[in-house]
Amino acid sequence: MSALAPDTHTLASAHRRVRHIMLQVMLALLPGTLLQAWLIDERILLTASVSIVSALLFEALALRLRGKPLLPSLNDGSIALAAWLLALCLPPSLPLWQLLVATFVLVMLGKHLYGGLGHNPFNPAMVAYAVLIVSFPVTMSDWQSTDSVRDPRTQPGAWDAMSGATPLDRLRQIRLQAGSADPVAESVTGSQNSPAVALDGAEADVSAGVSASASASASATAGAGAGAGAGAGAGAGAGAGAQASLATYSEKAQALILNSHWLWVNLAWLAGGLYLLLTRIISWHIPVAIGCSISLMYLVLGTVSTDHALPLLPALLSGAIMLGAFFIATDPVTAAASRKGKLFYGAGVGILCVLIREFSSYPEGFAFAVLLMNTAVPLIDYLVTGPAGRSRAGTP
Asked: Model-level pTM greater than 0.70?
């Protein structure tokens, strides 16, 4: 046998190791997926199934076109896991053809364009997600649940069901409405078609943590501001209304997130992540660095603008932070290799996530944060481990 020929025993052992890791991650994903299907939308199970099956078919096609054996790659579980993670990031109401576009991008552009597993510089699931959110922003923001079809007014998250808005979407709209400087828009208080009015009504339904007196006080203050604006200058009235609305932003954030079904789903992702840590499938460096950097960023934002920043606990238990910190950012192929590098990588993901979430047009920025830090991984590995780079993956 040639010295350059691959050792079949070594290859088989590597495939078994990859398969073991992927199965453990899938096991950790299962409780959160089932909880999301129960509390949010059962269609997530269909979305995940279609995503996995179509990804396996595209994977087989790509392997056939490249002249590679089918069975080892199809059996290692890597493409099935990537498709599962992608499905969890997509609205269950996404049209089927767009889901197929996503899995095609995941397999062909996210993985095989660079040579397959172990060679892709970007997280394939996040590549597919980014393509969809840029190409189809309307359908990608429609988180309408099947409960809304039955009776949206009887659901705890009625505004979520009717509009497709997640808690982060709603909080962003509240902040934009409160910060609006348009005196005409602010002075229109009686219109039921106003987004601000619709949001206030929804918050009253789902925000059990906000007291009735606080809500009444905020409404009275906003009304007084609007009346003053009508009689003594619309600009002053608008400013008073905005200030009153922002004064309760922290309470609204706590109620909308901590009383949402998404809280329990995020806690399930946290439990799954702790399982991966205990079984040593992942190391603590990236999740801890992400959590610490996000916490620090929100503490700084809260110091600079107490009316504008999310409270720390709702910030950590909202959006894709728990799922992303334990299941997405820890991808061993696209993350930094060394322990010290993982800390820098995770901190960068957390900082970028908060910046995109708070200062861009997107309510959540985890996918873009991961992709941007993927581009920085070669530099991080070089600066931390020297010219040897990823070949010294085990060194600090």
From this structure: yes
